Structures are given as structure tokens and as C-alpha cells.
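Notes from hallway chat w/ T.B., transcribed later so I don't forget. T.B. wanted the structure written out for a chain they're using in a teaching module, and asked if we could keep both sequence and C-alpha cells in one place. Agreed to drop them here.
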Amino acid sequence: MNLTRTFCVALPVVATTAAVGVLLGTKSNITAQVSGGHDTNPVDNGRPVILIANALGVPETVFREAFSHVRPAPGGEAPDPRQVDRNKEALLTTLGPYGVRNDRLDEVSNYYRYRPETGALWQHRDAQIRVSVVKGKAPQVTVEDAGAGYSSLPVITVPGHPEFRVSARLRFTKDLATNGSLEAVKIQVRK
């Protein structure tokens, strides 16, 4: 007597929909991972001087000079009102000739305020980048949101594609919504 048995085994699906799309020649959209981008110059003690200076429309060296005359309150303590006035006067003495007025100084300082003792960053917005992949064609990059508040270039990677190299430049402006945003985002395939 001959018995034939058929066994069906469910195998785990290991290919992502993006990978399947590439294999089949269809278009896949992959969200790039954007990380970091908040390093500061060591002389600035964690302060995003590049962002502050650009928002105020002054060179970084000018803002550093102005801030060198400021005596902040120790971390976590409320500043003495007289010291606040002296600090403001020191800043405006240096920045005033560049057209910086008190209201703009307050706006920018408050926007980029950071609390190193809490680990919190200044205000920023993460960039959103999507990469389109089609088998046999060069990948295309789309910047859905250029982000803002980057003080250094972030690392941009494409999950599942270590051969892709994404590069960008930073754009600094007086506009808080676009200061420290990404521009000229390009993608290359490493050989």
C-alpha cells in the first residue's frame, strides 16, 4: 500500500514590501532615517551659536564676542533682575550696530533656548525625506520637509540600502522656520 502525504509548511515572510517591489520592478517608497544634526562648536558650550547668529543676521564671531560679556545665572537658578539687565546691555552694545534690537534678541534667544541640565534641545523640526526605488533605475530623493534647527549636518540613511549615500547642505536664514534646514539633498549609489 502506497500512501502519499503532502505537508504544507508556513515559512516566515522575510522580504519587506519595498524589497518585493524592487524585485518585481515596481516603485517602492522608503522613508529615510535622519538622525543627529545638533552638534555645536565646542567653544560654545552646547549653545547653538550658528543658529542664533544667523537668525540675528550677524557673523558667529560677533555673537560670540557679545556673549563673552554675559554672566548667566548658574544652572537651575533664577537670574537676578539686575544681572539680566546688565547681560542685555552687554549683548545689545555689541549687536546693536548690526541692527539687532531688543525684541528680536528676545525672540531669537527664547526660540533657541536650551537646558543642558535637562538634556532638552532648542526648538527644532526633524527633516522628512523619502527615497523612491525602482529596479534598474537610479533612486530618487524627495524632501517632504527640510526640517529646521540643525546646527550640524545630520546623518541620513536609507533602511535596507547601505549602498545609498544621501548628502545635503545646511541652509541658514533669519527666518526661524527655515534656519538650519536641509538643502541640495542628493542620493548616490556606492559601487
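Follow-up for T.B.: DSSP finds five helices and seven strands in the chain. Might be a good example for the class.
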